Amino acid sequence: MADLTTEFVGIKSPNPFWLASAPPTDKEYNVRRAFEAGWGGVVWKTLGIDPPVVNVNGPRYGAVWGPDRRLLGLNNIELITDRPLEVNLREIKAVKRDWPDRALVVSLMVPCDEESWKYILGRVEETGADGVELNFGCPHGMSERGMGSAVGQVPEYIEMVTRWCKANTRMPVIVKLTPNITDIRYPARAAKAGGADAVSLINTINSITGVNLDNFAPEPEIDGKGTHGGYCGPAVKPIALNMVAEIARDPETRGLPISGIGGVTTWRDAAEFLALGAHNVQVCTAAMTYGFKVVQEMIAGLSEWMDAKGFASVSDIVGRAVPNVTDWQYLNLNYVTKARIDQEKCIHCGRCYAACEDTSHQAIWMKEGRVFEVNDAECVACNLCVDVCPVEGCITMERLAPGTVDPRTGKVVEADYANWTTHPNNPAAKAAE
Amino acid sequence: MANSPHTPGVVPGRLAREAIEANFSDLHPPLDDHEARVAADRCYFCYDAPCVAACPTEIDIPLFIREIATGMPEAAAKAIFAQNILGGMCARVCPTETLCEEACVRMEAEGDPVEIGRLQRYATDRLMAKGVHPFTRAAPTGRRVAVVGAGPAGLACAHRLAMHGHDVVIYDARPKPGGLNEFGIAAYKTTGGFAQAEVEWLMKIGGITVETGRELGRDLDLATLRRDFDAVFLGMGLAGVNALRAPGEDLENVENAVDFIAELRQAEDLSSLPVGRDVVVVGGGMTAIDAAVQAKLLGAENVTIVYRRAREKMPASEYEQNLAAAKGVRIICEAMPVAVHGDGAVREVEFEYTVETPEGLKGTGERFRLKADQLFKAIGQRLEGAPEGLALEGGKIAVTGPGRTSLEGVWAGGDCTPGEDLTVVAVAEGRDAAEDIHAWLMG
Ligand SMILES: Cc1cc2nc3c(=O)[nH]c(=O)nc-3n(C[C@H](O)[C@H](O)[C@H](O)COP(=O)(O)OP(=O)(O)OC[C@H]3O[C@@H](n4cnc5c(N)ncnc54)[C@H](O)[C@@H]3O)c2cc1C
Ligand SMILES: Cc1cc2nc3c(=O)[nH]c(=O)nc-3n(C[C@H](O)[C@H](O)[C@H](O)COP(=O)(O)O)c2cc1C
Ligand code: SF4
Ligand code: SF4
Ligand code: SF4
Predict the structure, then answer these.
(1) Single GO molecular-function term (chain B) (predicted)?
(2) Mean pLDDT for all residues in chain B
(3) Phi then psi dihedrals of residue A341, to 5 deg
């Protein structure tokens, strides 16, 4: 049996699955039930300075659904905790006392002055919590008040506040980043420069989930008006994966512990985050969609997969895919593939044909009797047909063996790796030795 | 001249061998990977899921289906086997339409439940195909438990006890283990020798020995078992069969449906198994349906089930009734057998229509006869050979809580105790008794 215990910035937890700072972690009742269900840790819902914020009293969430009303993306305009600081602190202390083996990190967001941060850090330390996470990510409401993503979008502020926090607490400091920026490496570098023990990402993405076409209000709608909210859930995972990978492979931040967040719904999502350099994962929308019990699938699935692959501990997976993330210019241009249609599996829907004929390279023939075949002389191996085919494994990409001729280019496929940097069409190409 | 459905009498080979083979192939063919993924995606992962409550073994259905959806059928199988070690058989034979699938919220939503049974089969098949056993035994406790009956109840009990480190000896009167999994369940529900393969796989836990051909009451007695073992579990099913109590019952070709089915299940070659041209089955339960359907699949020309009460009262589920109808079996309700006619062998069965009255079921006086060269009695099994000294209830072994009988150190479960006679119920009772025995032994 694989060992799922993890240690993240010195904080131990029985598995790498933490609940992200959000409604699931907004009170003692929730967190106790989450621990009972098996979650390895939680980041408590973001605390602020009293008086507490107030939330809207109409819908906080908007959604995007897939087939069968599967929730694919969730948008929210909720603020940080709207309960008094003292209540939260008391509950944090009580929960930590009863669950010493679980990670309990407290998320914080206070105005941009050192005194405020110093004050709240002191109060959190008294609870016995394991660490703090600085919420520089919330993209709505709080950002209008100069907090949340308003800080996270300015690397200098990130560095400054992180430095204040490191100077005022002995607890590990995790900096939670906003994805609402152009290059995630800058805020990550700033966090590191400020002395952060780790970064966590992503927080939610600015979004409007839809428009009511009767009254022309954006959704979620409050009395005929709406505002951009934070997008999360399965839909944001690809964005989050890339950002995690960018930080993991950036020479300036390499080795900085990362807590991966964004659309983690199954064991597989978690394994992917870990492989791309996250040391653990945080989950919000999956728990909000399916309840706390969903972690049981994540635990069982990850453990089963690790056993099957022979990985003994979580650290064996962390970062395994990072060396394979590279820049476009280094991809092998001599790797030549062609689409292959398995006639046994094909159900003759013609979607591959429509995609290729109408929008790509006219490389699929539709023959007598709805037989679909690939014309190697035109196939550029774009993969679009694979992606639109409704039958899993029906169309595959097969590599042309070195030495064979690619009928599209008429050239012999070379065995050697060669990339854009040395390609003759590249004006800046360095001459090969 | 080869036989055909029209050949008079009780003869083998009414259909070509290939036709019979096709007839007896899987009733619910296994799902392939894609089908399983699509079926699993329909599950809502309900909170406190009603399907779980409707499963007698309380398998964590939303969890195992989610594990299939995330590409981990082996993890799914472990979740199933943790609750129900015969999850493979149950996936094939459970009347899901009256259990988990009836309770599925998608029944309420659209009358089309998540295919829990077939998904369960998908997951369990995957793990069992690997030939590995997912559990390991606890350290030996040195305690020994005797289990009487190698049916689902006995097997589930033995497995759970062995897992806890106890040594188990199973005694069974029949030449093979499996109970009705091996001798009773319809052949098209458990194809390809699955029942024996499952027993062998289950035994891999270790610590269990099976002694076949050993009958309690003939070769063994309860007092000796109680003396030689630390505890005893009785899972002996219902070995007796109810009689029609109609004149002519002893004519040739009047048989117990369960004997016909057992013979069918053990037949090497179904095309050598004789069956009548006009077959009449008396009864209204699963056994009646199975006997009738299988007679039809063997090539009988006319098969009629006659049940004494109204259609709604039939113990066989609507699904089973429709299955019989789809195979061409005729179902007559509200008629009871009054005489079996024939000369040496049965020729006709005489029935009287019935009516429900406050005093019970009564004949109306109106009678009719059905042509029959084979008559199957399927009006219920009963407990036979229960050891002396055990308190009974309604003709079955009385139990309290998790299968405790009136005798200290003796537990019972499955068909021989009160409750519904289903494979999955037997598994639940065997498992729960094992937990209780374990607590008692170690307490
Ligand atoms: C024809 C038929 C079809 C059925 N179809 C279904 C179905 O599709 N789905 C479903 O869920 N259920 C079905 N059932 C019911 C199901 O088979 C039983 O509920 C289940 O097998 C009960 O398990 P058990 O272990 O209690 O008894 P059994 O399976 O009957 O096993 C009892 C075992 O004890 C042995 N035994 C009996 N007496 C003695 C003795 N004195 N000494 C030693 N050993 C003894 C027997 O040989 C047998 O192996 C069917 C039953 C029949 C008869
Ligand atoms: C309703 C809601 C409230 C949230 N509140 C906070 C918060 O107070 N602090 C914070 O750091 N992140 C907050 N988040 C962001 C989540 O912690 C998480 O970063 C984001 O939802 C992405 O993860 P997911 O795809 O698993 O949901 C909130 C998210 C939601 C849906
Ligand atoms: S989820 Fe609960 S709190 Fe939210 S709107 Fe529905 S009933 Fe009200
Ligand atoms: S999309 Fe797939 S299934 Fe449809 S025609 Fe093309 S290969 Fe066949
Ligand atoms: S009731 Fe149906 S949808 Fe709900 S968990 Fe069970 S199988 Fe899934």
Answers:
(1) oxidoreductase activity
(2) 96
(3) -100, 125
Q: In chain A, what are the domain boundaries?
A: 6-324, 328-422
Catalytic hit among A112, A138, A352, A382: A138
H or E element in which residue B337 lies: strand B335-343
Q: Tens digit of pLDDT for each residue in A110-167?
A: 999 999 999 999 999 999 999 999 999 888 888 888 888 889 999 999 999 999 999 9
User: What is the third-level CATH fold of A328-422?
Assistant: Alpha-Beta Plaits (3.30.70)
| Domain chopping of chain B, boundaries | 33-129, 144-239+383-442, 241-380
Tokens 């063994």 belong to which residue? B220
Pairing of strands B330-333, B302-307: parallel
**ipTM here:** 0.89
Domains B144-239+383-442 and B241-380 share a fold: yes
Model confidence over B11-22: pLDDT tens digits? 999 999 999 999
Residue B44 near ligand 5, beta carbon < 6 Å: yes
**Number of neighbouring beta carbons within 10 Å of residue B203:** 19
3-state SS class at B292: helix
Q: Which residue, by CA, sits nearest to atom 7 of ligand 1?
A: B93
- Rounded to an integer, what distance in angstroms lies between the CA atom of residue A102 and that of residue A107? 16
A138 annotated active-site: yes
Nearest CA to ligand 2 atom 18: A203
Q: How far is the CA of B148 from the centre of ligand 3 (A)?
A: 54
Q: Smallest CA–CA separation between B29 and chain A, in Å?
A: 19
> Please, what CATH class does the domain formed by B241-380 belong to?
alpha beta
The DSSP H or E segment spanning B429 is: helix B423-442
Cα A133 from Cα B273, distance rounded (Å): 75
pLDDT digits (tens, 9 = 90+) for B199-239: 999 999 999 999 999 999 999 999 999 999 999 999 999 99
* pLDDT tens figures, A160-210: 999 999 999 999 999 999 999 999 999 999 999 999 999 999 999 999 999
Do A304 and B70 make contact, defined as CB atoms within 8 angstroms? no
Classify residue A235 by its DSSP letter: G
pLDDT at A1 over 90: no
**Structural domain A6-324, CATH architecture:** Alpha-Beta Barrel (3.20)
Query: Which residues partner with A17 through β-bridges?
Result: A281
Ligand nearest to C-alpha B63: 5
Q: Decide whether any atom of ligand 1 lies within 6 Å of the B383 Cβ.
A: no
Cis before B20? omega within 30: no
Q: Which CATH class is domain B33-129?
A: mainly alpha
A211-230 tens-digit pLDDT: 999 999 999 999 999 999 99
What tokens were used for A290? 């399916």
* pTM, two decimal places: 0.93
On chain B, the residues whose CB falls within 8 A of the CB of A268 are: 70-71
Domain B144-239+383-442 has CATH 3.50.50.60: yes
